[in-house]
Amino acid sequence: MILMEEKNNLVLKVTETLSKDVGHGIARLDPQSMKALEVGTGDIIEIEGGKKGIAKVMPIQSDLRGMSIIQIDGYTRESSGVTIGENVTVKKIECAKAKKVNLLKINSKYTDTNEDEGTYIGRLIEGLALLKGNKIRANLMGSLFYEFMVESTDPEGAVIINRDTKLKIINSKEQGNFNLRVTYEDIGGLGNEILKIREMIEWPLKHPYLFEKLGIDAPKGVLLHGAPGTGKTLIAKAIANETDSYFVSINGPEIINKYYGESEAKLREIFDKAVKNAPSIIFIDEIDAIAPKREETKGDVEKRVVAQLLTLMDGIRDRGRVMVIGATNIPNSLDPALRRPGRFDREIQIGIPDAKGRMDILNIHTRGMPLGSDVDIKKLSELTGGFVGADLNALCREAAMITVRDAFQGQELSNENQLNEIIFHLNIPMQNFMRALTQ
Ligand code: ADP
């Protein structure tokens, strides 16, 4: 039975939605409800619980038909002020094209801004309907995503993100708590390494007193060495996330080049911040650029920077609560002083994944993707000998891109509904992974 409140208003019961919908601002409705509301797939509805949220209409899961149910994700539930099992009032609304939207990156501890970020994020959330004050999500590959608060929209009211929307991403330094929600489950094929790392980093960060009590020196620095793209950065982020630590990342060459003339001051600033915000993780990528063997360095800059880094590491008083993770591909080129006790005195080799590892990684990166039924991940893992995580990630993205390119080829899109229909029905067949492999 359909309960009509007033003309074109409908009361529906909220239930959870498909995991693939999360972040896409979709409300799944029964054909009967769609008819009563006079909406079709792709139309925008207002969902009123304790608050007002909006979402784009899609068809409901077939086994939920005929029950006056609306399927919405946690974000839309939050903006509509409801939880699962509660009722909402739904009606069709008009939604303007967004000219400008300012998004505040939430949970952000990263302070690096990238000018292309607006365009990039815009592509990820194209088609999303939103209101000022909403919390939204931009899905990256697999299980990675960014979260934002909609700070303002132009025009005001309900708007939809389109290709021409100018997005401004505000990276709030003060916000705290950033975690790109990289968890250990997002890292494939490094089970043993992760166990070791947890012991070395997570325990001292979480239980510094344990180490003190036992009279053991908690490690201050851990060196991860391995080829580029094997997951060293990913590991550092996952640890920061899992330990709820402040995370700051620096890149060796950047410290030397970008901050030329102020490299030591920059390092001091980073360490100061880390100490203030402890527990913290300082991640120094390509540390070999900062700290090459001193006798081999030509410039004075590097020598001074190494000396500064050593002083800073020796000076971390808050034992265990500030951890420095260095990453390098060439550990033997490092200044040996850095590898002495109390500095980077633990090392972990991050290897190139074997077939089992590649399978784990492929499973992670295809997690959010609509895969064709013929996709054989095991076979792909056998065909990708020598690939590291970053290569496997690129392979999955490319297979997805090929599928999108094929789908849009020769299509004359007259409206947005059609676009949504196409995207919604995309499936990535095995063949496209094979094509991506040979490119
Ligand atoms: P590194 O720091 O070793 O150069 P990254 O951690 O930056 O490599 O990896 C780059 C990207 O490649 C990651 O963001 C992730 O998408 C993918 N990747 C690399 N290693 C793995 C892995 N072991 N499991 C899952 N994804 C991985």
Automatic annotation (TrEMBL):
Domain CDC48: residue ranges: 112-176
GO cellular component, one term: cytoplasm
Keyword entries, A-Z: ATP-binding, Nucleotide-binding, Repeat
UniProt GO MF annotations: ATP binding; ATP hydrolysis activity
Coiled coil, from the record: none
CDC48 N-terminal subdomain domain ranges (all copies): 11-95
Record has Nucleotide-binding as a keyword: yes
All copies of domain AAA+ ATPase, residue ranges: 218-354
Domain of life of the organism encoding this protein: Bacteria
Annotated family: Belongs to the AAA ATPase family.
Protein name: AAA family ATPase
Residues of the full protein shown: 1 to 439 of 715
